Sequence to fold (135 residues):
Amino acid sequence: MGFTYRDAGVDVEGGNRFVSRIAPLVKATFSDRVITDIGGFGALFKGSFPGMSDPVLVSGTDGVGTKLKLAHWMNKHDTIGIDAVAMCVNDLLVSGAAPLFFLDYIACGRLNEDVMVQVVGGIAEGCRIAGCSLV
Fold:
């Protein structure tokens, strides 16, 4: 007898429902350089840089730290997404780079769809402000 995702505590239906809820938020950030849809195992971004003779890509990652506790206490989670994008974009800007896309990853023991939709909505808003695509 094999184990199932449900046996491991994974709610596949809830995950699929979540993806369908965030899809419009994510797709609203896509530029014409995003060449994959939401939900794949990898995102494809067109690597054409007209006008640049020797482009260099800059990457970075950051987090929001203890601001998560404040967001939980205030029950306001969209600002966490905006802040996550801002922290990463700031790190690129100080290197002289411009943000092209933002790759999110959310790990949690149990998916609270309403909270995570707020977080992803904030990430999408942060990407809109920064002029990059959420992939």
